[in-house]
Amino acid sequence: MEVFRPCRGAQTRRLHLVLAAAAGISLAAPAAAAQAPEGQLTERLTSSGDTSQVYALYLPPGYNRNRRWPIMFVLDPRGRALLALNLFRDAASRRGWIIMSSYNTRSDGPPEPNLNAMDAMLRSAQDSLSIDPSRFYLAGFSGTARAALRFAVALRGHVAGVIAAGGALGFELGGPETVFARDSTFAYFGAAGTRDFNYEEVVAMAERFGRTLVPFRIATFDGPHSWPPASICGDAVEWLELRAMRGGLRPTDSAWVSARLEAELARAAELEQRGKGDEALRLYEGISRDYAPWPRAGVASAKAGALREGAAVKRYQSKAHRLAERDFEQAGDLQETLEWARSQPESPTPETLVRKLGISELQEKLADGDSLEAASASRLLARIHVWLSFYEPRTYLEGRLPDRALSMFEAAVRIGP
Question: Has residue 106 got a pLDDT over 90?
């Protein structure tokens, strides 16, 4: 899966051109069609404009052409359309969302597969479905999370939210944090596993959205670099529905909002009781932002204030900040070491790579029992592993240097399979 790499300007310009053209297709209401009283999944459909493009389609219960429906475009980095669609299906059924999920999306390569897949899904959706042009949603994981964020910028005014798992963008002028600054009609939901090598970049992007006053939530889960579990994906859909109400994109269902507010307050209180002060604080802060017009949001604000001043949370956040800095430093150090290895006349031995990359020291931290330190070490080892087992060998094999590729693999197996 893809790790962070800066966006190339030419790719960004291409996104604007391709997706602006797609967004310009007529959004006139389609002719009436039969109603689908139950949710309907079609596993494979061919795009109306490009027969090389294939996607899965989910229509929610009661779908008909007499109204416009929100739609989510799902981009899996390996084109696993059904796997990714099913993570969101139950919530889409509850909230009345259409889902289109491509078999053609990819990560770790040129942007064209994702550009073409997104363009094809947009055209098919606008040709054959009754969709709300102000409520497009994008979901991606790893490299396609980054693609989704760039697509959101190119389709501003149509995209109401992005669910970005296991991947984020670095800060840049013209990036989503600046383009959507103070925009209440757009929302970002970030998610990452605690052992995900991209964990810190996801957290950092959420914090930047907060600083530019863009509605955001972040969810973490115990796991590696992967899509979040269906429960978190479902919660993301529910939260984006709430943000659509807050942003004026759909009528407010006050009873539903009040019930959700109480459920979130109960969840935050449970986290607090279990000694997970930092997670509770994050949720209380989110509640106070998202439910500000409701009086009960004041409970969350007060709880957040008390936790923020507590010694335990301050210690946790100080250490987490230090480990985040180490993470970003290690990302740069890793690239310097790999560049050094490429410059050597002979391939460095696996032992040399293990030593220069500090693998043994990280493995010791992994076993020392400190949960924050161990989680950070796990993420750093995962990043080293993906570069030694995938990116560098791929580059060496493309250059017909199999011995160097094997040396990287040998160093990678010192970490794990």
Answer: yes
